[in-house]
Structure formats: structure tokens, C-alpha cells
Amino acid sequence: MKDNVVQVNLWDKNVGLLSWDDKRSCSVFQFDKNFMQYGWNIAPLVAPVYESEKHEWEVYLPEDKWVHLWTGKEYQGGTVTVAAELGYTPAFYRKDSKYAELFSEIREKYGVK
Known about the structure:
By secondary structure, this protein is mainly beta. It has helices at 33-37, 100-110; strands at residues 5-10, 13-21, 26-31, 45-46, 56-61, 66-68, 74-75, 78-83, 91-94.
């Protein structure tokens, strides 16, 4: 590990970099763009709420265009705070995901009205 950054590999392919963000006291993972281009469209990003009595939850989204699964609201990445009511775990998918249509159908059927 050099400068708090480590390269992550999966099946001999570079997946991305894992680093430590001292300012936020958290780990940050950035997918390698080449990895994403080969059909590894990792989605959705789910942020489980692990504290009781929480109705909002802060989520870090890697730089990209993201869509909130339950509301359809779009985000550009970075730290966002979203509603986290029981049954609506914060979940996002990349706007250009090959599964965007499926996620849209899920939102229409089960999303926040």
C-alpha cells in the first residue's frame, strides 16, 4: 500500500483503487474506467441503514451520473443525504446502466408515490 491507496484486482483485471479519505474518515473506492467499459456495469449501489430511528442517510456516490431507485432523482456523485424510511433502503443505479429500464419499472411499481 502506497500513500494509503491500494489497487484492487478481480480475475487478473484492475477493478479500481481503494483509498482512505482522512477528511471524511472513510474508505473511498473508485472504479477503473476500463473495467466499467467491458460490461461490468456495477449497479445498483445500496447503502444499508444500520442505525435505528433513522429517516435519512448520508451516502457517498462515486463520480458519475446516478439515479435514486425509489424517487428517480438524479445525482452527480459525492456525498448526498436521502430519505431512508423503513422499506426504502438508499439505493442508486448509474444513469447509463444497461438495467436502467428494469430499475425504472421497479420504481414505478414500488417507489415513493
